[in-house]
Write a structure and sequence with these properties.
The protein has 622 residues and is an alpha/beta fold. Helices cover 23% and strands 22% of the residues. The radius of gyration is 26 Å and the shape is globular. Strand 16, helix 9 and strand 17 form a beta-alpha-beta unit. Helix 7 runs parallel beside helix 8, helix 10 runs antiparallel to helix 11 and helix 13 packs parallel to helix 14. The chain has an eight-stranded parallel beta sheet. GO terms for molecular function: hydrolase activity. Keywords: Glycosidase, Hydrolase. InterPro entries: Cyc-maltodext_N (IPR015171), Cyclo-malto-dextrinase_C (IPR019492), GH (IPR017853), GH13_cat_dom (IPR006047), Glyco_hydro_b (IPR013780), Ig-like_fold (IPR013783), Ig_E-set (IPR014756).
Length: 622
């Protein structure tokens, strides 16, 4: 049952006793809470002009005690600490703030809906196929929220990559059928939280309210319904979260609780973007500070997560979103930039409350950093390093993405080209479980794969075959299936609108009739492979056995103990190759024929395989 009553956008309506000298309460975070949480402690951040001069009391409420309240540097905040034990029932606490006069605030405790409800927090696994989209750029289902009264982004301009375009939650929901037909099982929208910024707020990574959905996309209740409707349609939802930074129009920055709530240098200091400074045994202190205590960008203040009050505020917020919406997974933006101790505590708190929640982080690696550096940020085989031992289940696998691109764009060599992909996969020994990594060809931050591959359709198909047969959780960036292209620099065109998402669009790639022959061919290719993957668990949980690439051909098998085996052969050469199969006898033993998954042709014997240039074979062995 959904609990939609009481919008969590603002909570001023429940304050009583206003009058001269009364401390007004503008908001309390979290906006409401639940009984029955595993951690009985609750920290409330209360905001209002001059509020710090108040005394706080709690009217008698069985199962709830007021532990303490704390004044901060700002005169406009109080921290109120409560304990909610197992005897507490849903209802409204009466908090009294006594200044010259008294204000009573009714704070709501709700009944939990998540425990035991199998339709919520279902988790994300290697059985899923994630579709990454930007809500503002996917489809406009509700033109009435294109321009929001009082918002700093006053217009929409679809001809600008930095302005809002009008896409929203309703637009995504109207295309659930399209996503299901494509073989998608999980939707990852870039952040849906409020980004009330004058420029570029469409991307979602400069949040201005931790507890509100961006009104350009819908309301908080709309998002709850969105998740519920996705679940009813057999689709999961990944919630994109930002721990490391906020937008400069967030109320916490505009009216700071205390100076030590944010990292602040004498003048703006941009970070060095070097996550290796966290585990470098020879690191200079300045370099370490320049990574983790600087701002990500000029309009993105950096919360001081080493401050226990800030850490608790953030942990509670991300528990709140899971319980409130029932989302199935978290993608954690700029994971490596946060304070390491905070990351351990945050991950522990989230997974203790929701052990089934899927979680993977953005662990953006550069070409020279290698698999070890990426594995450091996930559950791995390493001992604690500089006091950090990650509890993040999986990573966005930038190393596999980079080496896959190299396989399709660089000449073949002993340790070049596709050999680099082999070595990256070989490095899986460093992860606790590499199948929890999310693998991808492109996303909203890197050049679209079709452009990277020189708009070569065969190379893109080969990349997609790898994506949907490799270990891990595959993620597709919106529009890849219809050959959307372009680069991240200089104009951000990799974030163009999906064709057909707006009624005035001249082409509608959501329909077969609206696609060009080339677009439809690519769409069909993705749908066929994704559907096969969805119905063949050997590609979810089967063991991976790969062979050292020879002559630019990389061969691997997915196989399980029930006798299911899929052979994948990637020819990374500009010419066709005929490959004798006797080298793979250990995996072919017991099989005499195969079916080509892509062409459905029968392969009558397993003597040789002829693979066209830049093509992938996907054979189901028989």
């Amino acid at each position: 049952m959904l609990l939609l009553a009481g919008s969590p956008l603002r909570a001023t309506a429940t304050a009583h006793g206003a009058g001269p000298g009364t401390p007004p309460i503008s908001r309390i975070d979290p906006t409401f809470w639940w009984v029955g949480m595993k951690n009985p402690k609750l920290q409330l951040l209360v905001h209002g002009p001059g509020l710090a001069a108040s005394q706080v009391t709690l009217a008698s409420y069985p199962g709830v005690t007021l532990d303490s309240f704390q004044r901060l540097e700002s005169p406009n905040y109080l921290v109120v600490n409560l304990t909610i034990d197992t005897a507490a029932k849903p209802g409204k606490l009466q908090l009294e703030f006594k200044g010259k006069r008294k204000t009573t605030y009714a704070y709501e405790l709700r009944a939990r809906t998540t425990p035991g409800d199998k339709t919520k927090v279902q988790g994300i696994s290697s059985a899923d196929f994630i579709y990454l989209l930007m809500p503002d750029r996917f489809a406009n289902g509700d033109p009435t929220n294109d321009v929001v009264k009082g918002n700093r982004a006053r217009t929409i301009a679809r001809d600008s990559m930095y302005d809002r375009h009008g896409g929203d939650l309703k637009g995504i929901e109207q295309h659930f059928d399209y996503l299901k037909e494509l073989g998608v099982t999980a939707i990852w929208p870039t952040p849906v939280v409020d980004n009330n910024m004058p420029k570029a707020g469409y991307h979602g990574y400069a949040l201005t309210d931790y507890y509100a959905v961006d009104p350009h996309y819908g309301s908080n209740e709309d998002y709850v319904r969105f998740v519920q409707h996705a679940h009813e349609q057999g689709l999961k939802v990944v919630h994109d979260v930002v721990l490391n930074h906020i937008g400069s129009f967030n109320y916490l920055w505009l009216d700071q609780p205390a100076k030590d709530w944010f990292h602040q240098w004498p003048t703006f200091t941009r970070g060095n973007y070097r996550n290796g400074t966290v585990n470098d045994p020879h690191v200079a202190v300045l370099d370490r500070q320049l990574f983790s205590t600087t701002w990500f960008d000029t309009t993105m203040p950096d919360p001081a997560q080493e401050n226990p009050l800030v850490a608790t505020y953030l942990i509670q917020n991300f528990l709140w979103w899971v319980e409130y919406t029932g989302v199935d997974g978290y993608r954690v933006d700029t994971y490596t930039y946060s304070d390491p101790t905070f990351l351990m505590n945050w991950g522990k708190a989230i997974l203790e409350e929701y052990p089934q929640l899927g979680m993977f982080g953005e662990t953006w690696m550069q070409q020279g950093e290698g698999v070890a550096q990426q594995a450091f940020w996930t559950r791995n085989v390493f001992p604690p390093i500089n006091g950090f031992k990650s509890n993040l289940p999986g990573a966005l696998d930038f190393m596999l993405r980079m080496t896959l691109v190299e396989s399709l764009t660089k000449p073949v060599g002993f340790d070049e080209g596709v050999s680099r992909l082999y070595y990256a996969v070989q490095g899986d020994w460093m992860y606790e479980d590499a199948s929890r990594n999310v693998i991808f060809l492109d996303n909203h931050d890197v050049d679209r794969i079709f452009s990277v591959l020189g708009e070569d359709v065969n190379k893109q198909k080969m990349a997609l075959a790898w994506l949907l047969t490799e270990r891990g959780i595959p993620q597709l960036y919106y529009g890849t299936e219809v050959l959307m292209k372009n680069f991240s620099r200089p104009d951000g065109l990799l974030r163009e609108d999906f064709p057909g998402g707006w009624p005035t669009d001249p082409k509608n790639a959501f329909t077969a009739a609206g696609r060009t022959p080339a677009q439809h061919d690519m769409h069909t290719y993705v749908r066929k492979l994704a559907t096969y993957r969805k119905t063949h668990p050997v590609l979810h949980t089967g063991q991976l056995t790969h062979f050292v690439p020879e002559d630019g051909v990389y061969t691997y098998f997915r196989h399980d103990t029930q006798g299911h085996t899929v052979l994948v052969m990637l020819n990374c050469n500009p010419a066709a190759k005929t490959v004798p199969l006797n080298r793979f006898a250990e995996r072919l033993r017991g099989y005499t024929a195969a079916r080509d998954v892509l062409t459905e042709a029968v392969v009558p014997n397993l003597q040789t395989a002829t693979v066209p240039a830049f093509t992938a074979l996907v054979w189901e062995l028989r």
